[in-house]
Structure of Beta-lactamase superfamily domain-containing protein:
Amino acid sequence: MASLRLVRHATLLVEFDETTVLVDPMFGDVGVDPPVQNTPNDRRNPLIPLPEFDPMEGVDAVLVTHRHNDHFDDAAREALADDVPLFCQPEEADAFREEGFTDVRPVETSLVVGDVSVTRTPARHGHGELAEAMAPVAGFVFESGDETVYVAGDTVWYEEVPATIDRFEPDLVVVNAGAARFVEGEPITMDEAGVQATVDHADCPVVAVHMGAINHCLLTREELRETVPDAVVPEDGERVDLPR
């Protein structure tokens, strides 16, 4: 049976019977990176430590949804094996190759690793001109046998999220919450309303991650659990199994 493990922030292990994919590795120690600028506080990132974790144990491939530092950082760049299969945005493939990765696999539509099909899906990292500036970004759907996991990526709630849920009918949806934002403008990841809309639309558990680790993610786990009690809000290191 497939499962999902939250490592920290957006770093996930998507585990099927035969294949494990590491998503959005951010391995840096507390405070090694500067704060995200133009945000309501100046706390250095990451804010919390990485749980005990071997980044390559049992991992068959790595998927980077986009190259923002909170999804792929210097520590991950150093820790990952150069020859690991690395799935990424087509626009970002050359950057990974220039960093020495030798098995870069840009996902135009779908690719396969082991017994898992990986399909790129639309995402919108904010609103209006800001969303355009934050691109490229995407979600990804993982399918193996009759089990399907939709990792929505850095996106707000908009028409493509329910459309993807309707198309793939996932057994588990993962949304990046935290209501990340700058001083001006609307959140660039899901806030309480976006998570609630996903819960209301999906006929499966909705797991909310992307909280507590980065200074501009202002929505806390406690607040989300209180406002959207039907969402699954795991702690770092926690595993969530797909429903039987």
About this structure: The CA atoms of residues 20 and 59 lie 5 Å apart.
